[in-house]
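Quick start: what a row looks like.
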Amino acid sequence: MTEGYDFDLFVIGAGSGGVRAARFAADFGARVAVAESRYYGGTCVNVGCVPKKLLVYGAHFSEDLDLAESFGWSTGARSFDWPHLIANKNREIARLNGIYRKVLGQAGVSLFDGHARLRDAHTVEVLGKRYRAAHILVAAGGWPHKPDVPGAEHAITSNEAFFLPQLPRRVVVVGGGYIAVEFASIFHGLGSRTTLMYRRDLFLRGFDDGVRTHLREEFERKHLQMRFNSDIQSIERQADGSLRLRLQDGEVLDTDCVFYATGRRPLLADLGLDTTGVRLDRRGHIEVDDQYRTAEPSIFAIGDIIGRVQLTPVALAEGMAVARTLYRPEQARPLDYKQIPTAVFSLPNIGTVGLSEQDALRAGHRLKVYESRFKPMKLSLVDHDAERSLMKLVVDADSDRVLGCHMVGPEAGEIIQGLAVALKAGATKQVFDDTIGIHPSSAEEFVTMRQSTREVAP
């Protein structure tokens, strides 16, 4: 489409966003190349959401086996084989890698399996050769961050957790974000003696406080140990291979594995940004405008490397937006970052869309809040103190518009996805009330909560 160049678009990074942009740009008639030095599918497919959810499924079976007995099943002796789970996971990820390659190849995209480096605003070097492109898209993603404490080299991150040769007997998970609570759930569910350590008062900062508190209570119910306002000062390898942690309060703790889930940084190393006019923002991410164009007009950037909303579906939408901006401008429209649904695959799951109660109050809304806590029907035959679900609606008291939907419980992500459509369409609480529920289901609770639990104002 553009004369004088080897490619119309050169994409650096074959993660979700890069693949989406490359595939559709090629479908729109552009000559496209993709360079990837690690694995096709990026973090999500290889060391992120896909293998993580497979491990979450595996971890939940311990609870399912307990539950089966209340329905008359005799499960007998049971054991867990970590290497078997990891081998099956690896086979599935390899299959997905192949699908990503196939999709790009069928679209006519040229593939380069190597590290790409910018040489100027229109030149990319990969595998010792240089290619000229009318436009370049940087979609190199992010990388786990470990704090600079003595002995941090003995700790692992999410990158390594998926390839551990054996399940650790004792694990300390450090962090308070969704990766931390998910992996704490995984290790605990699979049988490791697990401690979740966080330097603040309560994990999942930014989520609705009711959700955060409910998950903490469920973790306590499951006897998952939590240490808040606590952090590691140093890590020492012992002669028997275990790790000795010295905490900032002077306490000593022994474990077999330290898993850091303390944030991610943009993967900028050796990209050659200094050969271009690309600028970074104050947090160290690539700075882009509403069309994902950097300060260098020919270079775009999307995904984790720009640090907006670091979710796979968001990267996919950003990749599509770039393809449309460049090759279907009549279809281009700004991406709306409001009311993005998300799930945390802890055990129990969290699903959320829209404003938290706290954010709605900060935005000046008078609120009616509806909450319901109950034991799901699937657990009704269990004699012991069973898991409870939370469902919550945050409603504007003046307009009746539903501002936020929040859930903690089985299949929360599946349920919240449908409600995200309703919030996007501007549904009011009256619309929820007028909707017939599916009975018996947990989801019907969202359309049967009639009395507000409280009314609050800024």
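That is the whole record. The chain is about 30% helix and 25% strand. The CA atoms of residues 366 and 457 lie 4 Å apart.
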